[in-house]
Write a structure and sequence with these properties.
Layout lengths: L3 H25 L5 E5 L9 H7 L3 E2 L6 E4 L10
Parallel strand pairs: 1-2
Antiparallel strand pairs: 1-3
Length: 79
């Protein structure tokens, strides 16, 4: 049985992480390349949407939720 609160929290986390990535793209005017996207929860059965949105190595059942940026991306100027 699914826990509605867990599902909502997971959805909100996914939305926030995707939003952060999109905001970085808007601020720099160019694609942002991550080293990986990490999620504390277990890997869903279908990860195609995660692959489409994040397009980077995905890690599930990780210690923390995080977007790991390449060091070269941290020096990208903001528009």
């Amino acid at each position: 049985m699914t826990n509605p609160q867990y599902d909502l929290n997971r959805y909100l986390l996914d939305l926030r992480m995707a939003g952060i990535l999109k905001y970085c793209k808007v601020l720099t005017g160019q694609p942002v390349f991550l080293k990986e996207a990490c999620f504390k929860y277990y890997k869903p059965h279908d990860i195609s949407e995660y692959e489409r949105v994040f397009n980077y190595p995905l890690r599930f059942n990780h210690l923390r939720n995080q977007l790991v940026f390449n060091q070269k991306e941290t020096g990208t100027p903001v528009l």
